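Field guide to reading this record: the first block holds the primary sequence, the second block holds the structure written as discrete tokens, and the final block holds curator observations. Each block starts with its own label. This record concerns Amidase, catalogued under organism Streptomyces lancefieldiae.

BLOCK 1 — SEQUENCE
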Amino acid sequence: MSAAELTPPEAALWADRAGLPLPGDRHAAVAATANHIHSVVAVLRELDFGDTPPAAAYRVGEEKNDAAV
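BLOCK 2 — STRUCTURE
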């Protein structure tokens, strides 16, 4: 899939290829949902996590509370 938005006919085609044929009245809603998900994922891909360890490295109770109140 390219960076262009998914059209309702393309959504129907991809759903059919995945074995999930859609009724005609659902094509636009599925395309809109797929486009929204794509836009959210695109924003997440732009984030720089730098030295952030993976979630599996987090241990409850080991955080350092150094904020002033």
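BLOCK 3 — OBSERVATIONS
Residues 6 and 34 are 7 Å apart (CA to CA).
The longest helix spans residues 27-46.
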